[in-house]
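Q: Please design a sequence for this.
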């Protein structure tokens, strides 16, 4: 272990500011295991939504590496997150996926737990057995505007409070905790999780690879090199930047939090949020940029309030007046990453009446498939002996440099 840590430390030292990471960080099994320990056990990660378990007794199993947790709603309508490990001999309580239960009953020896995790039945353990010492182990979790974040460590980072303070107000009008999941997909990307995140944090590639998304997404929002633009394009970019400043000012004056808030370096909990302008019709991320659902989310009354975007180190989300797109990543191996995407609508919206599922989902279904191909190409390339870390664009890829810097810093802070 000491030798492994020394090798990883040496590789961390070799990372050059402004450049991508050395190939080993995308490929080695020991570094993948370190990533899972540092970034998916010791940090806060987004794993789901309150509306994944809308009714008492609803339960969903979420696996993160070797850890399995149960997200559930108890009989008092409260959210609980517990480890999916029986306190008898460690058997899994529930299988993967969603289910409805009245009690948590271990299929091995029938130890039985309340939905709060309290052990209430342990047959043949004797009169002196203290059930209260064998309740299910709880998981540290926070519901932030209806998003469920967990930390699998006993010492979760305290700075998650800044994320909570920022997003509770911004997400309140969407009432995500009281919405419903209209559709869910799981795409397996053939690449390292860091390549998945890096791909998401820049739009350098958007215009050439995401025609569906670019109907509503504005790639200029993610940076550009003024010197590379024609005089006409530069004038258009400057006009758009002025529009952004004006629109943000108006939104803020109207009480809609819109300005950038971020913690991407010199922090533990990594996040960024901003209200983005939607292009074209300006309503939603759909094939024609008009709203997909006639029934708006929560208390929303307007379709023209843009896209409140939020990302973390294992997720990215888009909240619009009519629906939200929630994307969560779970690393499966050094070269395999699962991207779980959920489309959220008002709880009373009816498919075929209030929304069309194809219009609702097609943009991000296509975008996720396109990104999966790009990540696979990138992963294949970093494994090639000819690969060496390349320079990030200071105009369009600053957030990638920030991510790599944060990654190195967090590895250092956790003993590597």
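A: Design:
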């Amino acid at each position: 272990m000491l030798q492994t840590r020394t090798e990883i430390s040496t590789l961390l030292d070799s990372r050059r500011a402004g450049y991508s990471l050395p190939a080993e960080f995308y490929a080695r099994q020991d570094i993948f295991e370190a990533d899972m320990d540092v970034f998916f056990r010791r940090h806060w990660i987004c794993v789901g939504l309150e509306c994944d378990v809308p009714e008492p007794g609803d339960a969903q199993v979420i696996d993160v590496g070797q850890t399995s947790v149960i997200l559930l709603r108890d009989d008092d309508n409260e959210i609980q997150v517990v480890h999916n490990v029986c306190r008898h001999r460690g058997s899994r309580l529930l299988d993967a996926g969603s289910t409805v239960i009245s009690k948590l009953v271990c299929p091995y020896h029938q130890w039985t737990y309340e939905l709060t995790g309290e052990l209430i039945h342990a047959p043949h353990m004797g009169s002196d057995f203290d059930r209260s010492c064998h309740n299910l182990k709880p998981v540290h979790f926070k519901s932030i505007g209806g998003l469920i974040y967990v930390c699998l460590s006993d010492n979760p980072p305290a700075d998650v409070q800044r994320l909570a303070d920022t997003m509770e107000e911004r997400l309140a009008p969407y009432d995500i905790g009281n919405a419903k999941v209209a559709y869910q997909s799981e795409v397996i990307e053939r690449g390292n999780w860091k390549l998945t995140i890096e791909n998401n944090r820049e739009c350098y590639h958007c215009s050439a690879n995401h025609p569906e998304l670019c109907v509503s997404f504005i790639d200029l929002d993610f940076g550009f090199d003024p010197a590379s633009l024609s005089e006409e394009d530069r004038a258009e970019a400057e006009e758009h930047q002025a529009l952004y400043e004006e629109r943000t000012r108006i939104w803020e004056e109207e009480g809609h939090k819109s300005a950038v808030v971020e913690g991407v370096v010199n922090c533990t909990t990594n996040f960024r949020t901003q209200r983005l302008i939607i292009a074209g019709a300006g309503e939603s991320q759909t094939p024609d940029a008009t709203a997909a659902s006639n029934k708006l989310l929560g208390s929303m009354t307007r379709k023209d309030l843009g896209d409140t975007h939020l990302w973390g180190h294992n997720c990215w989300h888009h909240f619009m007046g009519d629906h939200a797109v929630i994307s969560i990543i779970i690393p499966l191996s050094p070269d395999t990453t699962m991207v779980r995407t959920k489309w959220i609508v008002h709880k009373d919206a009816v498919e075929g009446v209030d929304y069309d599922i194809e219009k609702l989902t097609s943009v991000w279904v296509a975008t996720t498939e396109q990104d999966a191909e790009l990540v696979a190409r990138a992963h294949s390339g970093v494994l090639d002996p000819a690969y060496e870390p390349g320079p990030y664009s200071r105009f369009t890829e600053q957030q990638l440099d920030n991510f790599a810097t944060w990654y190195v810093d967090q590895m250092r802070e956790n003993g590597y």
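Q: Thanks. Anything notable?
A: The radius of gyration is 23 Å. The domain at 45-156 is CATH 2.102.10.10 (Rieske Iron-sulfur Protein).
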